[in-house]
Amino acid sequence: MLELDAEALYADLREGVRRLLGPEPPGSLLVGIWTGGAWLAERLQRDLGLPGAAGVISSTLHRDDFGSRGLAAGKARSDATQLPFAIDGRHIVLVDDVLYTGRTVRAVINELYDFGRPASVTLAVLVDRGGRELPIEAAVAAARLALPAAQKLTLAREPDGRFSFTVKPAAPATGAA
To answer: Fewer CB within 10 Å, N- or C-terminus of the chain?
Structure first.
């Protein structure tokens, strides 16, 4: 059974994101991908002492499987996107929990550009599990591991804010992806 210490990985992610943000004042803005990435970005914002709130972005309306999944797909919500700042000309650090095929990141970048044109978008993830279907690469990954396609790695947030991982069987594909 795969055992991952999500809290130890979070500490590594925090240090990687600190390097990405650059010198004071912060030149980059944190945006977390709904849901696990949003939890991470929220905690990073606080732990790194950054002013304001991190942004949250959903991939729902730009997914390439939207036709088969619709708005009710899993935990994704079309109204989850909350960007409390202008993104035009800003450097965005996009945060996610698990990078797999790259399709969610592609959809989120499309959503981000609906709000303006950032100067750059850099990806930071807790776990890169390989299996890419698109040319998407994280600048920071706290861990890189290979999981069989039949398994899904899911981040959970405990009531006290601590993170943990579970490994479950992946849901069967329900349409074109």
So the answer is: N
Q: 17: closest CA among 83, 80, 95?
A: 95
**Maximum CA extent, the chain:** 46
DSSP 41-67: HHHHHHHTT-SS--EEE--GGG-TTHH
Domain borders along the chain are 6-169
Class assignment of domain 6-169?
alpha beta
* pLDDT value at residue 78: 54
DSSP string, 115-169: T---SEEEEEEEEE----SSS---SEEEEE----TTEEEEEEE-TTS-EEEEEEE
> What pLDDT is attached to residue 3?
78
